[in-house]
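Progress narrative, work stream C.
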Amino acid sequence: MNLKKRLLYYGLVFGMGLVFVLLFFNLRGCEWLPDNRVISAIKSSQIIITNNNNCKLDCNKITPKDIFLLIDNGDVDFSKSNTKARKKQYFISDNNLELTFELYPFDSTAEIININEKIDCSCNNNDSIIKLYKPNNMMLKELNLKALKKQNLFSCQFECLNLDTNIIYTLLNEGEILFKESLPNRKPNPL
C-alpha cells in the first residue's frame, strides 16, 4: 500500500472511531473524566456548611456567588484531596479561592469543610448546618437557559386567570426564587 492510501485508510479508521466515541458518550462532553464527575456530583448536591465555617466565609468576604463560580470554573486537585475515606474530600481551587468539599453520596449533600482563610477569623459559632443556594440572579440565568415546558393543568389555570404568557418571562428575568419552598436538588425533577 502506498503512503497516500495508508494515510487515507488511517484517517478513515480514526474518523469512524471518533464517530463511535461521540455516539457512545451521547455527545455529553468529557463528563466521564474524574475531575468533571466530581464537579458534576457537587453541582447536583445540596451544598451545606456549618455556622462556624460560614462565619469564616463572611469574615474573608467570600460570597455564595464566589462559591458557585468556583464550582463552575474550579479544578479538583486530587493530590490535596482525600478520596480513600468513606466520605470523600475534594480540594477545589480557582484563582485565589480554595475550598474543600466533603461529598456525602448517600444523601446528595456536599459540605464545605475547609476554607483558605486569608484573614484569621475568631469564629466560635455552633456547628449547626445551614444550606447554601445559588444567588437569585445566577439561578434565574440558569433557568432561562432551559426549555420551558408547561403541563396541561398549568395551561388551563393560566387561561382561566386570563394571564399573559409574558409574565412567565418577566418572572424568569426579574423574579425572586423562594428557595425555602423549592426543591432544587430533587431528582429527577427539581422544583
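Work stream C, second folded protein:
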Amino acid sequence: MGVVFTLLHFSAYTFLMDAFLKWFYGYKNFWDEMLFFWLVNRIENNYDISKLIVEAGDQIRLEDRIKDNKNYLWSILDKLEIVPINPYKIKHISHALNLLWRWKYRKLFKFFGWWEVLDDSRNFPHDWWNIALLYNKTMRKKKFALLGWISTIKKNRTKNLYNFVIPRAKNVICREKVSYHIAKKYNHESVLYEDFSLDILNKFIEAKQTRDTWFAPYILINLTPRSDNPDSIIKIQNFCDDYPKHKKIFFPCDINDDSQYFVELKKHVPEIELYNWTKHSLSETLDLFNNSDGGIWARLHFLYPLKVFKKNYQALAFEEKIEKMLG
C-alpha cells in the first residue's frame, strides 16, 4: 500500500482549538460511517483539539452509532459534538437560514474529507466547487485540512479548483499513491497514509473480535444504482454458481440506495438474504466480512475489507479509485 507516515507533525496549531468536520456522515452509508471513526481518532491524535463539531445528515442516528461503537473511539469521545446539516426545514427560506446557522462556525479550523475529497467525475458544483465557494473565506485564510482521495484532472475547471484549494490547505492526507503525487505538486505538506479504514480493520483483527456468530459457508453480494445492468446480474449469477452450497447474503452498503436492488436480485438469486447492518455494531458487521468466503461487489468500500481479510473477491466494475486501491 505504500509508506505509512506517523502524521505526528500534523498539528496545525500548538494551542487548543475548536474544529469542524464537514462531510457526509449520518446517511446510513456503512463505509462513510466507518471512516468517521478513523477520521475523528486521527484528528484527536494529531491536532490539539478542545472540541470537534461534526456535521451529520442525521444527528440522532450518528449519536446512537457512536454510543454503540465506543470501542472504536480512542480518547475523543468527550470532545465530540454532533450537529445537523440542515436544522431548518422552512420552505423557500431554509437555504438562507442554513447559511446564517453555519456563520457561527466561520472561524473554526475545518477538516474536509472522508472517502473522496476532490472528485473530477462529479458535475459542477458538486465536483467540490460548492465547498470552495461556500467556505471561500476559510480557504483564503488557510484554516483547513484535506483528507481523502484526489482524482486525476480531466477538466479545466478542476485544474483551477486544485490551484485554488490544495496549496492553501494546512495539511493534505492522501489515502493512496496517485492522490499523494497529485497533491504533492501543489502542497509540500501532503502525506501518504494507507487506506483510512485500515486502522479500524486492524483494530478489529488485533482485538480478535471475530466470533462464530455467522453460519458458514456464505458469500456476500452488493449491487448499486450505477452497476444495475444485465452484465452485472450475469456476473453475480456466475459467482454464485461457483459457490453452490453457500448462503448468499446481500449487503446494502448504502441503505437508501442499495436496498432496492435486493428485490431485483432475488428474481435471479432466489435464495439471497438481506443483511441490515444498521441493526448491528461495527464489530458484528466486520465479523460478517471476516467469516465470509468472499464476495462480489459494485463498491470499492466493500472490496477493500475482503482484500484485507484475504478473501476471494470480484469487482462488478472498475473505476479509477478501484484500480488505485486494489491494483
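Residues 8-201 form a domain with the Rossmann fold fold (CATH 3.40.50). No further action is required on this item.
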